[in-house]
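Kindly review these tokens for lecture notes.

. . .
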Amino acid sequence: MAEESFQEKTESPSPRRQQEAREKGQVVRSWELSGGAVLLAAAGGLMALGPQLYRDMATLLRDGLQIEREAAFDPHVMLSTAAEPLQHLAATLAPLALLLLAAAVFSTFLVGGWNFSTQALLPDFGRLSPAKGLGRIFSKHGLVELAKAIVKLLAIGAVALWVLWDERLALLSLSAQSLEAAVAHTGGMISWTFLVLAAAVLVVVAIDVPFQIWSHNQNLKMTKEEARQEAKESEGDPHVKGRIRALQREAARKRMMSEVPKADVIVTNPTHFAVALKYQNGMRAPQVVAKGKDLVAARIRELGMKHRVPLLQAPPLARAIYHNVEIGQEIPAALYTAVAEVLAYVYQLRTYRTEGGEAPRVPVDLAVPAELDPQGGQP
């Protein structure tokens, strides 16, 4: 057991292990992707809705600073006057808020898909351990998070410097513009800069998403012993399955042996094979009710002699039936002639036993196609 605990996880996670992980709430998630999607949605929303937001905010600010004399002395009027701008503000920001909410929700499903697990809501007091917290900080995952933060800082810093350098002339020209034009120009530059900086986060997203998929797969990997144990649990213990199959074969053998006394004839090899045949009115052709080789064949012959079932030595026919017909099946058409001769002999033998007379001739050289006999008709 001590050696098993140090085995490397080299086996790919099985579907069962993946399903158990999903039930525990362990799915692939990239928070960089969610954060980047929200930033891009915010930048795009500000560029599309910015002018209208600016006008609505200016109107709200202007109307909010205009207070009539009656409102200043009447608390009820003052409250309604203050509530109305807040309602306008909520209506103004609602489209942008809905856009951000949609980006936050749908970006989460892009990696890992939809998953709801109540087990993820259960408290895990192990997370409160300072030792485990330090272990997570200085673990491989912590180093990767640090590397991502550095890459994000460098990417955003480089893009910010590039934007500032590209807009340096526009920034210097703001002092020569009117107030309205300068404010509009500044708003446009801020929106554009925000969009470019948000797009820079995609560099980190492009690194984080494949890493999260790989890391999740690595965490779910199994040791060879775990894979064997899971296969044993899902498919059943091979020893138990073997025992069940043995019991099933024994039960089938007992049912088969119970049909031997009801057979019309037993065709033998004479020692290696034994096949019990039965024919009744309504059957299209004689049916195999029991068959076996070696010890089973000996038991079939023993039961046949005990219950006075006729035995006929016909090695090619016995082999052909044994190898080509299963228990409960009818004999093939290619063997009709040979089996008909056998049954005719059996009926004559019954008459001879009950009424006497001349003993029937034992059939020999039965017509058995060579392709049905593994020994090609040899005795």
